[in-house]
Queue: 2 jobs
Job 1
Amino acid sequence: MTIAIIGATGQLGGHAINALLARDVAPADILALGRNSDRLAELAGRGLRTATVDLDDIAATAATLTGIESLLLISVGGPGQGLEPRRNTVTAAQTAGVQHLVYTSALRAPTTTLVLAAEHKATEEVITASGIPATFLRNGWYTENHETDFRAAQQRGVIANSIGAGRIATATRADYAEAAAVVLTTPGHQGKAYELSGDTAWNFTEFAATASDILDSPVRYDALSSADEQEQLRAAGLDDATIGFMSLLNANIADGTLADTTGDLATLIGHPTQPLADTMRTWL
């Protein structure tokens, strides 16, 4: 089996490589693709095949993917910038004859109101139209996205945002990456979509209480209005476009768009997702 990973030099890609190696995939059977030459050199030192990739160059990407059986496409590109490179990747994979395309999408991508999901939905549609047998891993939220909140708790004893009572069913990147490794190395996943999320949905009052236990010091959560949050972000030096995006994202989360506890992730990886408190301990 030959497996290529686009986005191999990122955090999720690194965890996916570790998960594949843990499942006894030979390093030489993994082709790590990315743009970070230093990180690619590290991976080459572990015995992986590596190559830089320019997704704007469809022909070169297709040549690089020739002979690859399975491709893990980690959702490259920032918000509003991801669809074109992903479309190019799908075209290149078609040309190269890739037999299985695994894409890291967003939770409930076809139906969610989550501001981040529109390009994921569009990417899924491009992949489906290509005819390449595919699996959609609709990843929920990463627990690591909230390390900055933990640092605020550690430094100031206060966490503040406009999410309020909204719940988030997070899991670690390692858990999501392990699911990708399972799908890439076991049969029966082509044509399926998995709604992946953590086993437990928490809110920020609970997050603060957990942080307080881990830090052994008081931590308070302050629920802000959207207007107050925007003022704080502006005072911190963020531009209006970033503030607007963050406000919309937090409103989505407050509405429960990331609260689903589907059980798909734990089922795929064969064990519970890492609890919030355990992840916090790794941040100490």
Note: The radius of gyration is 20 Å.
Job 2
Amino acid sequence: MPKNVFVLGLTEMQLHELETLEDADHLRFHDLIGYAPLIEPDEFVFDDLLEKGRAELDAFDGTIDAIIAHWDFPTSLLAPILAAEWGIPAPSLTSLLKCEHKYWSRLEQAASVPEHVPGFAAFDPFADDVRDQIGLEFPFWVKPIKSHSSQLGFRVEDDDDLAHAVRELRGGVQEVGSAFDEVMAMVELPPEIAELGGTACLAEEILVGRQTAPEGSMARGRFGVHGVFDMHYDERAESIVALDYPASKIPRWVQDRMAEASERFLRHIGFDDGCFNVEFLWDEERDRLGIIEVNTRISQSHSDLFAKVDGVSNHQIALDVALGMEPRIPDDKGTYEVASKCIILHREDGVVTRVPSEQELAELERRFPETVFTIKVEPGDRLADLPHQDSYNYGLGDVYLGGDDPDDLERRWQELSSSLLFEFDPPPSGDR
């Protein structure tokens, strides 16, 4: 009898990736809650989304065998809450919040892997004494204790930068912070976390080096890493422009240290029966390995890359964990030796007047087989109005492509990117 797998915010691209799984013919994939309510709104009510998920599962006429998440908050917390309610293996909510709450996570990291933690401080962006609360020397990063991707994250060089960042934080921190408060109310919090609230922010010492991320699982107490990624920034070191799999520029011994630190932290917080990816920066010159953040899910950005290289997406791991099975690690059965997600960025605000046509994309797919394009804008869109953007660049779309080696991958991307034509008009005069 087919098993029913529910995926929060399921897209057509992700459905295609799910169809690469072993035994896919014996699985039935179902969207849960929907992409738009989970990903597109500027603000949302967590309890409403949770009730919507419960209602859809209650109304389903069949077995509920697995619930999977691959998006950031709120799906990263909705899925394990719902899974636990339906008797599906999932991490405890407290262990998840010790990762998702950036300040709480830093406290737990400092207690378990202190050699990998930058200097940090929590602060109230609505207070008058923000600079005194922070106490770090310039420069440093500031960000909400919970946000989407890199939204409202700012590099602060001086007092003027800090004043600008605080204004932006005050204007946008409640979009996610209020919903995060709803989740925090579900567990018993230590006093130093409870008094902060969901709209608090975090300042952190700036880490430097090459960004990399192991992705893995903890299943019934057994830790494993199933892939490691190189992550590349733009020339200003502000926005990620590409993810490469497998990591080719990180020595094996550094990858082993990342795995050891990840396992030590996850065991310390009691995380089990779930997937993770941990973002690090490796400073080769000082041989310092610093944790950026810990994510409590597989990454949807990685899924197609696993399929291209290993022949099966990382959903295989998430599904096996949810079904209580031994995670099956993919094993180089894909078409390509390496793969990359390349992010199309535009720095200045404007109104989109042209995007690559379907015919142009089809021709590129013919020239570069298995390349996947996700164009996220259309003519008439104002870039400043796009949801879930980082603080420095606008994301126009993503390109997933494979290659024979890193040099071949770079050549393909250069040829592809020169053929992806976007055009813009200036934003309306006097606006913003």
Note: The first helix runs from residue 12 to 18.
